[in-house]
Amino acid sequence: MLRALIGDRAVVMVAALVLAGAIGVAFANQSLPPTHELHASVFAVGLIGKYLCFALLALAIDLVWGYAGILSLGHGVFWGLGGYAMGMHLMRLIGPRGVYGHPVLPDFMVFLNWTELPWYWRGFDQAWFALLMVVLVPSVLAFVFGWLAFRSRVTGVYLSIITQALTYATMLAFFRNDMGFGGNNGLTDFRELFGFSLRDDGTRVGLMLASAVAVVLGLILCRLIVASRFGKVLIAVRDAESRVRFLGYRPEAYKLAALVVSAALAGIAGALYVPQVGIINPSEFAPTFSIEAVIWVAVGGRGTLAGAVLGAVLVNALKSWFTTAMPDLWLFALGGLFILVTLLMPKGVLGLVSALPTAFSRRGVIAERPA
Amino acid sequence: MTEAAVLPSGALADPPQAPTLLYLDGITVTFDGFRALDSLSLILAPGELRAVIGPNGAGKTTMMDVITGKTRPDAGRALFRDEHDLTRLDEAAIAELGIGRKFQKPTVFETQTVWDNVLLALAGDRRARRAFRFGETAEERERIEQVLTTVRLLEHRHRLAGGLSHGQKQWLEIAMLLAQDPELLLVDEPVAGMTDAETEQTAELLVAINRDHSVIVVEHDMHFVRALGCKVTCLHEGRVLAEGSIDRVSNDPRVIEVYLGR
Ligand SMILES: Nc1ncnc2c1ncn2[C@@H]1O[C@H](COP(=O)(O)OP(=O)(O)OP(=O)(O)O)[C@@H](O)[C@H]1O
Ligand SMILES: [Mg+2]
């Protein structure tokens, strides 16, 4: 198992990079004085934390797209539901400190003249319950969706379109005020989490570090999955699904398990994201967001795990730069990047980075052939 | 067929008299009105080796598609071991019953190693929840080595299957069949793309496999079919045109007319 874990050098290196980078930034914020030239601002800490959440989402997408051939264009639905579960917990923690000062009801419910907490908001004041829901709600949705789709052998473009419709429909539903999730304003004005004020720098650093740990644990989990017998079957399903059936496997069971794990990871990523940005609203379910997330994976290198993490961080760093320097051009740049990668770098940035060592080992492959 | 004749497991109450391994009973398959199989019937005895020949489009591959659950026939039934109607089962269930298949176009898992291809085919628990395992047991390793030695691919075990030559992929698929160890092997055109020497080796291998497996081989190469030394069935337009020893079938004027004479 350990051998399988460290068998992928890129994964080990990216995991180390994520940990070292996060600890470095935390140190630069907490221990270096603001006058020091290497001091990291709270803004920078928040930015890195956000990138890491995106990286975990990308990892989740790579597990199903890169290894099971399921091109989900709707992973935002799992991410968003995880985010809302966390957002509901944060709302409940505001307690009587809201603008209207109601002891239980969040502000937007008072504003809607509601007098009672809807049943599905119960329990979210408890951290354990909220954290459970962060994982459970996306997983259950993925299970039901996957069970229906895979059983009727929906694959390829059709499956992608349905995932897109799923996240779009969810977005429309969450826009409605009477759903009880704050409508288009979403949930915001959070104050604290686990007893720590979200306005403290220390809390921000802690959340960023937690995101880094989540990415590393996600890498470990995904690496173990793809290196196991399960992963080999999954890759076989990706490459030749019907062939796998004739060997006696049921591909739908394997795809379903992978999708559920992936949805759980996406949910956790969304839940880590919400306290760091201070808001969750239906735009997280927007189809364009889910498509962007797929592009991160394509840019980093599909089916490599490490590439997904790299791609998410790189593309989003680029996006941050673009949106301050030339905001109007970002979508064109993203589209151009995607076309460039698809045409010139089928294995993404990671393929480019690892091209050097393979150029050397290619000689070995030839030598292995019989004369 | 009435519902009353069917037992809960999909088993049938009225099997034919003599013990048969496979009994195709009036199988008809139509594609947009075209009859690829036209009320085809065929009986395979347990332990038998059977060669199936016939011109292009005769329905040989379609017959295998029906047996393995890839294609549902419009009419007829396919009884396996006198009790299971294969036309009511899906691909995985049929594979589990003990029917393995090599495809006409070699289909291996290209991005995985030769070793892993055989590992995936290896008989064993196929359930997803049992698959979170690493490496292979000593028994499994021994079995994979044995199978790869048989098809002379052991030295290529670390190579990706996609990098193999056409002939080597054919061998790898045969290795996967051996690893799967099914009771009945369906082998579709195994020697296409092989040299004469390789063709001969394949014939020997199939005869050897037949010692403890039943086999149906589809092949156009008549030298190869002769080397198998078994009963031959000639299909034409979805029906059995002739059946018997290789000499009888190859001297049948109708077979010569539609197939061999061209
Ligand atoms: N999925 C399909 N849709 C439509 N027609 C099909 C399909 N599969 C097979 N056919 C047709 O059915 C007929 C029988 O095809 P089949 O592949 O069984 O022939 P075959 O005997 O294996 O021929 P060959 O020797 O060329 O492999 C052919 O005319 C073929 O075009
Ligand atoms: Mg054919």
Number of strands of chain A: 4
Q: How far from one another are the termini of chain A? A: 36 Å
Strand content of chain A: under 5%
How are the strands of the biggest sheet of chain A laid out side by side? 1-4
If you compute it from the alpha carbons, what radius of gyration of chain B comes out, rounded to the nearest whole angstrom?
19 Å
Number of helices of chain B: 9
Domain count of chain B: the total is 2
How do the strands line up in the largest sheet of chain B? 6-7-8-3-9-10
Brief account:
Chain A has 371 residues and is mostly helical.
What does this structure look like?
- The complex is a heterodimer of chains A (371) and B (262).
- Chain A contains 15 helices and 4 strands.
- Chain A is an all-alpha fold and 371 residues long.
- Chain A has one domain.
- Chain A has a two-stranded antiparallel ribbon with strand order 1-4.
- In chain A, a hairpin with a 2-residue loop joins strand 2 (192-193) and strand 3.
- Chain A is globular.
- Chain B is an alpha/beta fold and 262 residues long.
- Chain B has 2 domains: 1-98 and 184-262, P-loop containing nucleotide triphosphate hydrolases (Rossmann fold, 3-Layer(aba) Sandwich); 106-181, no CATH class.
- Chain B has 9 helices and 10 strands.
- Chain B has helices at residues 60-67, 91-97, 114-121, 138-150, 166-180, 196-209, 222-228, 246-251, 253-260, and strands at residues 22-31, 34-44, 49-53, 75-80, 84-85, 99-102, 184-188, 214-218, 231-236, 239-244.
- A 6-stranded mixed β-sheet of chain B has the order 6-7-8-3-9-10, with helices on both faces. Chain B has a 4-stranded antiparallel β-sheet with strand order 2-1-4-5, with helices on one face.
- In chain B, a hairpin with a 2-residue loop joins strand 9 (231-236) and strand 10.
- In chain B, helix 3 (114-121) runs parallel beside helix 5, helix 4 (138-150) packs across helix 5 (166-180) and helix 6 runs parallel beside helix 7 (222-228).
- The longest helix of chain B is centred in the middle third of the chain and has 15 residues, at 166-180.
- Chain B is globular, with a radius of gyration of 19 Å.
- Chain A binds chain B through residues 1, 3-4, 225, 227-230, 232-233, 235-236, 239-240, 242-250, 253-254, 256-257, 365, 368, 370, and chain B through 68, 70, 90-92, 95-96, 100-101, 103, 107, 109-112, 116, 119-121, 126-129, 131-135, 155-156, 158-159, 163, 176, 180.
- Bound molecules: adenosine-5'-triphosphate and magnesium ion.
- Adenosine-5'-triphosphate is lined by residues 31, 36, 54, 56-62, 104 of chain B.
- Adenosine-5'-triphosphate binds at residues 31, 36, 54, 56-62, 104 of chain B.
